[in-house]
Design goal:
This protein is about 70% helix and about 0% strand. It has one domain (about 10-50). With about 60 residues, the chain is an all-alpha fold.
């Protein structure tokens, strides 16, 4: 993770490295780790979840 990475890139990298345990870590701690506010992390996470559900429902 580099300083110039976007929040979305940092979250993607976090999921790649620690996705196996991300459900056991609070959103607040993940936000702190990637350097964003918990509020912004919530929006980022919801956006990512809505995009992944849109893609999986396409047939």
């Amino acid at each position: 993770m580099t300083i110039s990475s976007s929040a979305e890139e940092k979250y993607e990298e976090f999921l790649t490295r620690y996705g196996h345990c991300s459900n056991r870590i609070t959103d607040k701690l993940i936000a702190s780790y990637i350097g964003i506010t918990p509020e912004f992390f919530s929006k980022l996470k919801n956006r990512k979840l809505s995009h992944s559900s849109d893609g999986s429902s396409a047939a």
